[in-house]
Amino acid sequence: MNLFILLKKVVYVKDNDDVASNLKKALLGVDKLKTSEIFSEIFSQHNSFELIEEVVLETLKQIGYEWENGDVSLAQVYMSGILCEKFMNEYIPKLKLDKRNSPKIGIGVLLDKHSLGKSIVSSIVSAAGYEIKDLGSGLTPKALVDLAQENKVDIILISTLMLPSAMKVREVHRMIKDENLNIKIVVGGAPFRLDDQLWKTVGADARGKTASDVIDVIERLE
């Protein structure tokens, strides 16, 4: 690689980091105007959806790690995903791109009635450009598998809050295996953070440590 190309690449990465840092501040402050300006700046300077996607994913990952360390709130993680989804959807049509249609993703909650975790993950996955189907909350394992089949999903994301609902993933795995379905299971939530081997115990294919971490997991399973 010649020196000019190398220097150009270094500057590109540095600028990218600066934009991601500014975007993170705007998102955590729920500053819609500043977030809009940053998206507009990226588009006008580079006319590249790939760069928008790269910056958004890096920013959401950083916010996810900060939540894991207790530095930001769940509400900030949630609103960051919502804002990114809003502006990503605005720029996709301008670039004449379709949202990714593979794999087909569904998300649901077993038995637990909470939906905050599901909402956060859904927003982040959608902001990354994936189509995601909300399968509902408080579902039995059979209901979840039936809905997954009905919607022809390739990957089920299961959000859990309590250990009993986490253990029900084992039944989902058994049903998928018994019916010979080609569906991957990705789990996340408090029980799987407290026990980093629990996802294997219940038969999941992967675990997302944080809401933003699930994007890397999905990409590995594609």
- Number of H- or I-type helical stretches: 11
Oligomeric state of this protein: single chain
- State the domain count: 2
Overall strand count: 5
User: Sheet bearing the most strands, described?
Assistant: 5 strands, parallel
Amino-to-carboxy terminus distance: 32 Å
Would you tell me which CATH topology of the largest domain applies?
A: Rossmann fold
Reading off the top of the CATH hierarchy, the class of the largest domain is best stated as: Alpha Beta
Give Rg in angstroms: 18 Å
Can you characterise this structure?
Helix content is 61%, strand content 16%. With 222 residues, it is of the alpha/beta class. It has two domains: 3-94, Orthogonal Bundle (Methyltransferase, Methionine Synthase (B12-binding Domains), Chain A, domain 1); 100-221, Cobalamin-binding domain (Rossmann fold), CATH 3.40.50. The chain has a five-stranded parallel beta sheet with strand order 2-1-3-4-5. Helix 1 (3-28) runs antiparallel to helix 2 (32-46) and helix 6 crosses helix 8.
Core attributes:
222 residues, Rossmann fold, 2 domains, 61% helix, disordered N terminus
